[in-house]
Design a protein that fits this description.
The N terminus and C terminus are likely disordered. The protein has 2 domains: 207 residues; 34 residues. A hairpin with a 6-residue loop joins β2 and β3. By secondary structure, it is mainly beta. The strands form 2 sheets. Strands 1, 2, 3, 6, 7, 8, 9, 10, 11 and 12 form a 10-stranded antiparallel beta sheet that branches. A two-stranded antiparallel ribbon has the order 4-5. The radius of gyration is 24 Å and the shape is globular. The protein is built from 1 helix and 12 strands; from the N terminus they run ββββββββββββα. The longest helix has 24 residues. It binds calcium ion (3 copies). The site of one calcium ion has 7 residues, from loops.
């Protein structure tokens, strides 16, 4: 197998749906009210729960829609747009576990309503951020103190387009994406529509996919199709060179 020294980074885009995203896992979280603990949410994919279903076994829930993951924190949170991942009342977030050190590069929301400011955090603590209980440790307000770092707040994210994140190039296995929470940055209200507006309380989004890269060994392999393409390009280049060279000989011109 041909190896290509120096090919260390490759960007991958993955739809977040737990059914199809392989080793990557997504868990939903909501808080239990003001300053309350975060609660992990199961995903109801086979028990008949629907967007408007308020049965007790359906809330709180993480749910996959055509536009991405939304969270319903309670029975009054199941209609549009509250079925999205939002920051109205309960603070809702997704914990993405890549299973390996990963540089998140872009986030794609497949749905927005009202406003669409988001916050991205990365785990920088030791071990895993999951506590022995079903929480990832206390209230959402204390995440930074417990080992998470702010990657960025991004205002007015456009649906169905890659929103570049993580300009600093942070790498981590665990990432939190959420509707903007002013706990993690300055509230900049009063200038909605300017493209730099950050304000909490009215952001409804569904997280659909992420783009990311992982660091591979310095002698990372090039796939066979890529190898063949490279070889083919070299052959055609040689033919072209030979043709040009022959074309310069007297007598080879067409008459
Ligand atoms: Ca919600
Ligand atoms: Ca905004
Ligand atoms: Ca907002």
């Amino acid at each position: 197998m041909f190896t290509w020294a120096g090919a260390s980074m490759a960007t991958t885009t993955t739809v977040l749906d737990n059914v199809s995203n392989g080793a990557l896992t997504v868990t939903g979280y909501t808080d239990t009210g003001s300053g309350g603990s975060l609660v992990a949410l199961g995903e109801n994919v086979s028990n008949g729960c629907s967007d408007s279903n308020t049965a007790s076994n359906c809330v709180p829930q993480l749910k996959w829609y055509s536009g991405g993951y939304g969270i319903s924190s309670n029975a009054t949170d199941t209609g549009a747009p509250a079925h999205a991942t939002d920051n109205v009342g309960n603070k809702e977030s997704l914990l993405i576990n890549f299973g390996t050190n990963t540089k998140l590069e872009a986030v794609n929301i497949g749905y927005r309503s009202g406003d669409s400011d988001i916050t991205v955090l990365a785990w920088a603590g030791s071990g895993a951020p999951i506590a022995s209980t079903t929480t990832y440790g206390g209230s959402v307000n204390g995440l930074i103190a417990r080992g998470w770092v702010l990657v960025g707040n991004y205002a007015d994210v456009v649906a169905n387009a890659a929103q570049a994140v993580n300009a600093a190039g942070v790498s981590s296995s665990y990432w939190l994406v959420m509707a903007y929470n002013s706990v993690f940055g300055t509230v900049n209200s009063g200038n909605k529509g300017t493209g730099v507006d950050l304000d909490g309380g009215d952001d409804y989004v569904k997280f659909y996919s992420v783009a990311y890269s992982t660091t591979s060994p310095s002698t990372g392999r090039v796939s066979e199709p890529a190898t063949i393409l490279m070889f083919g390009t070299a052959v055609f280049g040689l033919i072209g060179w030979r043709s040009r060279k022959q074309g310069k000989r007297p007598g080879n011109f067409a008459v």
